[in-house]
Amino acid sequence: MPSLPTAAAVSTAAPAASPERPGRLMSLDVFRGLTVMAMLLVNNPGDWGHIYAPLAHAEWHGCTLADLIFPFFLFIVGVSIVYALDSARRAGPRGPLLRRIGRRAVVLFGLGLFASLFLDWDLGTVRIPGVLARIALVFLVCGALFVQTTWRQQAWTLAALLVGYNVLLQLVPVPGLGAANLGPETNLGAWLDRLVLGEAHLWKESKTWDPEGLLSTLPAVGTGILGLLAGQLLRLKTLAPAPKVAWLFVAGGAALVLGIVWSTWLPLNKALWTSSFVLYTGGIAAMTLAAFYWLIDVQGYRRGLTPFVVFGVNAITAFFLSSLLARALNRWQVAGPDGAVGLKDWLYHTLFTPFIANPYLASLAGGLVCVLIWFGVLWLMYRRGIIIKV
């Protein structure tokens, strides 16, 4: 089964010589691995002040290459749920399966909270929302939907979420602030985050709103549902591979076009996770998976894919541990020519900037080296058959 958020466990089984096992999509491992590698690259530049435009998030409205990464991951979570839970859903009672989904979501949410607390340990100011918290919530809701509903009910749920969220953002007045709007600090979602969580528990860069806030988690669930629908299409035994690829391309293209059309009145926006953003990014994700599925699982293309599989089977591990290490390196102060600096900055200005004149290229090199270091760690784990499922 594809790696996905599961109960905390470590598997030490040796990697199979061939990825062609029942119920497994090597293309999904590759897609997940490529997504996590991109996430590490975007999250760990050498210098935050010098980032090539595609690797920087849109300042507010818009969508860059970096903005595709998180929705891709949530889409993959939806596909993985189908491949991991479909047999269990058909085989037995659903109560134990729902409890299993709940436990896994709690573990993921707990890891996110731990990452936010790491080296601070201050519950009064810890950021509660975050990437792992959103993954946990999307996994919980999408897992329950997959177990309890049909694909048609899931599609109607998706439509209701996207239309309803659009109505909330653009028609519902913001209490105490006035008319509905899409401003960073004045939209309905930012107001709800401050009301429920308090400013002390939001993203430290803003303190008044959070890019993984409560209200925007609703359309993020929609991204996961798109993955559920794609996974169920690929699992159909009544369709040959070629029609599956065709239907996935057509559906992805339709979602992409609809997202672009919708963006004319509800702009693409990752921080708000607008309905247009869900369809736009989900459409691209569906077409990407269709291409990978055709090339890798149908045509049997394998050459050069091992690095992506290495990241793909330990995706959450790579993200979680890299977050802890980055936090530690930023906190560890060392003496510099202009006073104490974080160890990460010291390493960058010692190992990269003296040798690469272009600051943007130097920053990119720093991020690529980070990806290579984590590849080395994950490669050793992969060779030893260690897969940590969380």
UniProtKB/TrEMBL annotation:
Tell me where the signal peptide lies.
none
Say yes or no: keyword Oxidoreductase present.
no
Q: InterPro entries per the record?
A: HGSNAT_cat
Q: Where is the Heparan-alpha-glucosaminide N-acetyltransferase catalytic domain?
A: 24-169
Pfam families under this entry?
A: HGSNAT_cat
Annotated Gene Ontology MF terms? Answer: acyltransferase activity
The keyword Acyltransferase is assigned to this record? yes
Record field: transmembrane: 68-85, 105-121, 127-147, 154-172, 213-234, 246-265, 277-296, 308-329, 360-382
Which keywords accompany this UniProt record?
Acyltransferase, Membrane, Transferase, Transmembrane, Transmembrane helix
Protein name, entry field: Putative acyltransferase
Organism of this sequence: Hymenobacter chitinivorans DSM 11115
What lineage does UniProt assign to this protein's organism? Bacteria, Pseudomonadati, Bacteroidota, Cytophagia, Cytophagales
